[in-house]
Amino acid sequence: MNSSIREHILKALDAGIRFDGRKLDELRKVTVEKNVSKNAEGSARVLIGDTEILAGVKTAVEQPYPDSPEEGNLMVNAELLPLSNSRFEPGPPSEEAIEVARIIDRGIREANTIDRNKLCLTPKEEVWSVMIDVLTINAHGNLIDASAFASIVALLNAKLPKREDGVVNYSELTKESIPLSKNIPITVTVYKIGKHLIVDPLPEEEDVADARLTAAVLEDGSVVAMQKGGEQPITADEILAMASLAQTKSKELRKLL
């Protein structure tokens, strides 16, 4: 941690402004583009500031998991490409990539966003598997929220491929959407720097943050999943304040759906 940068950021936060001039609770510009891939069943490109994420949804007919023989499968994978940030390296998934994928997965599962029972074709034998792949094109802060939002947009626009005589034709999509409930989670991460709480951090702010709390929030404000990160502890009062801020900012992002 660069102490001089932290001191500079804290002085700015004490004055009520961010490293880039924003307010503490202000998001950067968010841009959403749907159906950007011709080969995915659903896809999205999301930019939050200079952070750019691609998310794609693929489906396949596979065997169900033994513990859920009448439910479809869900898998989330995040690839932090070296071309998107110099700190990312080629090879097996890093801890950061695994955490991003798990946070996305947990939010969708805990919200019961996908009606997995409707993905069952033949109990114990065949179900639809839904696979979400997240790729970083440019990582410039707030990777978790951008990746989660792109995943949700891709899911909302995905269509199942045509299936005849047990064979899936990926070149022809049907009008049938992936069965979703009304519980669509919006993920917001709140960072703590000193005594201050901020959202949508720049890399410089992420590097000096003491802790973070990621919340998956439904339209009615319910928090269905949380993930704590960072080396420093947070108090019960701070958790409540961070969750409240996440609820407020989730409403802004939800309007973009």
What's the shape?
elongated
Radius of gyration: 19 Å
Number of strands: 12
Average pLDDT over all residues: 96
Number of separate structural domains: 1
State the CATH architecture: 2-Layer Sandwich
Strand percentage, roughly?
Answer: 35-45%
For the sheet with most strands, the description reads: 6 strands, mixed
- Could you state the CATH homologous superfamily? GHMP Kinase, N-terminal domain
Number of helices: 5
CATH class: Alpha Beta
Please bin the fraction of helical residues.
25-40%
In CATH, the topology is named: Ribosomal Protein S5, domain 2
- Uncertain parts: none
Query: Helices and strands, in N-to-C order?
Result: HEEEEHEEHEEEEHEEH
Can you walk me through this structure?
The structure is a single chain. This protein has helices at 3-14, 95-110, 143-156, 203-208, 236-254; strands spanning 30-34, 42-48, 51-62, 73-79, 120-122, 126-138, 159-164, 167-177, 186-193, 196-199, 211-217, 223-229. With 257 residues, it is of the alpha+beta class. It has one domain (17-254): Ribosomal Protein S5, domain 2. The strands form three sheets. Strands 1, 2, 3, 4, 5 and 6 form a six-stranded mixed sheet that branches. It has a four-stranded antiparallel sheet with strand order 10-9-11-12. A two-stranded antiparallel ribbon has the order 7-8. A hairpin with a 2-residue loop joins strand 7 and strand 8. The protein is elongated. The two termini are 36 Å apart. The mean pLDDT is 96.
